[in-house]
Design brief:
The complex is a heterodimer.
Chain A: H1 2-11, H2 13-31, H3 38-61, H4 65-69, H5 74-102, H6 112-137, H7 139-162, H8 167-171, H9 173-197
Chain B: E1 5-14, E2 17-26, E3 31-35, H1 42-49, E4 57-62, E5 65-66, H2 71-76, E6 78-81, H3 93-100, H4 109-118, H5 132-144, E7 150-154, H6 162-176, E8 182-186, H7 190-196, E9 199-204, E10 207-213, H8 214-220, E11 222-226, H9 228-233, E12 239-245, E13 248-253, H10 256-262, E14 268-270, H11 273-282
Parallel strand pairs in B: 3-8, 3-9, 6-7, 7-8
Antiparallel strand pairs in B: 1-2, 1-4, 4-5, 9-10, 11-13, 11-14, 12-13
Helix pairs in contact in B: 4-5
The chains are: A mainly alpha, B alpha/beta.
């Protein structure tokens, strides 16, 4: 499994490097007071979403799936490695966000930790549905559903905020995070079931 | 000695296409060539063996392991090269070492590096910049570096120039020198299989229509050129298939010696695998 996670990292290394540089530039600009950190959370969310779709897209492009299924770990290893890679990505981005929150002299850093927790919770809920969908449909057919999957909750949250009804949800952030994390277990079981049935 | 691969009564339906009751045996220390037209079922058979598709019926054993229930043990023993290189273009050969090493119990880093050197594959060059021949050699290097006992190759030599093909075939012969090793190779380049295969199985429209030791098949089968009148006088039990043309007829006989005794005036020529394929694929019964 370690090798397959490495594969996802190596295949995406150009993007990861680019996003790293982008993050550094953003932080420099934030330090100079030109940019606010609240925008950074949105950018990190987009990065997570794009990278998740990318790993599936690159595999589709090179027709990697039959190759990975010829390894001894088979289907199970493929699903678990991919899930772990996406979770590591989320963990890495969260850690970067938390690190930024600790940096002195950055505008908007006070709310950064909470924003990162909100981002993690939101993205975990998305992943719970998105990963089985990507295994089932493949990235090209799943793309419209994936965009819808992100847009609907975002619009819902925006409406709740407008109606000033977001506060109860904010109070439940901790349990919601745990619920999303537990959902990942269900998501893995569903993904495994899909991949077991699939033919390559 | 346990057979390397045993395929028993395998059936698989795919819409219009069906693989029907396929039986194959690959003994240890030998090469089995799977021949057949495009779409005949060669790749489907290989996918069944690799558990990439689910069987409708039948069983497959790899070195005694059930290919579905004991998939992990079975796959530890197999190296696979498909008709194209599945490694991402943005990777380098050196990356594959890091990716594949943790997946195999017996991955041999030094062996992998020695193959890269032997095949003149630069470790640090992007796979995107490789030619097709280089990509296939890379696939072969990756397939051989965990010390598999069985190699499965699906059209791995198609689209390669004769020099690279010969180099790869030499590698197969080197691999098979160990009596515990075996190769299943599907190809429609029958000349390659005539060079290296010990056994041949011909799949036609989803069924194995001919199988056996290559030398015996080539020794026993023959081609008879004759007129339509002579053809009509032949005993059907001697004739496997016939082809009728504007200028004469040809018959494929399955027992050359017996035919010569029965019809001494008709010359019987040796046949190649390609000719046998053409007779079975395009010919008709007498």
């Amino acid at each position: 499994m370690r090798g397959l996670i490495w594969k996802d990292v190596l295949v995406n290394r150009a993007q990861l490097r680019m996003y790293g540089i982008f993050l550094a530039v953003y932080l420099v600009l934030a330090r100079a007071g030109i940019l606010n950190l609240t925008g950074l959370v949105c950018i990190l969310a987009v990065v997570l979403f794009v990278l998740t779709l990318n790993v599936f897209a690159y595999d589709d492009e090179s027709r990697w799936d039959p190759c990975v299924l010829c390894l001894p770990g088979g289907r199970r290893q493929a699903v678990l490695a991919r899930t772990l890679f996406v979770l590591l990505l989320l963990g890495f981005v969260s850690a970067a966000g938390a690190l930024v929150a600790l940096m002195p002299g950055l505008q908007g850093r006070e709310g950064m930790l909470r924003s990162m927790l909100e981002l993690c919770t939101f993205f975990l809920f998305i992943l719970d549905v998105l990963l089985p969908l990507l295994w089932y449909l493949g990235v090209e057919r799943a793309r419209p559903f994936a965009i819808t999957l992100v847009m609907f909750p975002l619009v819902g949250l925006a409406l709740l905020e407008k109606a000033e009804a977001l506060e109860p949800l904010e109070k439940l952030l901790g349990p919601l995070f745990l619920l999303a994390l537990a959902g990942m277990g269900v998501s893995i079981i569903v993904s495994l079931h899909i991949v077991e049935k699939k033919e390559y | 000695m346990t057979n390397a691969i045993e395929v028993r009564g395998v059936s698989k339906r795919y819409g219009e296409f069906a693989l029907r009751d396929v039986n194959l045996t690959l003994p240890g220390g030998s090469i089995l060539g799977l021949i057949g037209e495009n779409g005949a079922g060669k790749t489907t058979t290989i996918k069944c063996i690799l558990n990439l598709i689910h069987l409708d019926a039948g069983t497959i054993r790899i070195l005694g392991h059930d290919s579905v229930r004991e998939e992990r043990q079975a796959k530890e023993e197999i190296g696979v090269v498909m008709d194209e290189c599945f490694f991402h273009d943005t990777l380098k050969p050196a990356d594959l070492d890091r990716i594949l090493a943790p997946s195999w119990k017996n991955w041999d880093r030094d062996l992998y590096r020695s193959y890269l050197k032997k095949f003149a594959l630069p470790e640090k060059q992007l796979i995107r910049e490789f030619s097709r021949g280089m990509k296939m050699k890379l696939s072969l290097a990756a397939a051989l570096s965990h010390h598999p006992r069985i190699l499965i190759l699906d059209e791995a030599t198609s689209g390669l120039d004769p020099v690279v093909r010969d180099e790869i075939l030499e590698e197969f012969l080197g691999f098979i020198r160990d009596e515990e090793h075996a190769i299943l190779i599907s190809s429609h380049i029958t000349s390659d299989l005539e060079k290296v295969a010990d056994y041949i199985a011909y799949i036609h429209q989803g069924q194995v229509v001919l199988s056996g030791a290559k030398d015996e098949l080539l020794e026993s089968h023959g081609r008879v050129g004759c007129t339509a009148r002579q053809l009509a006088d032949l005993d059907p039990q001697f004739v496997a298939r016939v082809r009728r043309g504007q200028f004469g007829c040809e018959a494929l006989v399955s027992d050359r010696k017996a035919f010569r005794i029965r019809y001494p005036s008709l010359p019987v020529d040796p046949v190649s695998l390609e000719e046998i394929m053409l007779f079975i694929g395009k010919g008709e019964n007498l």
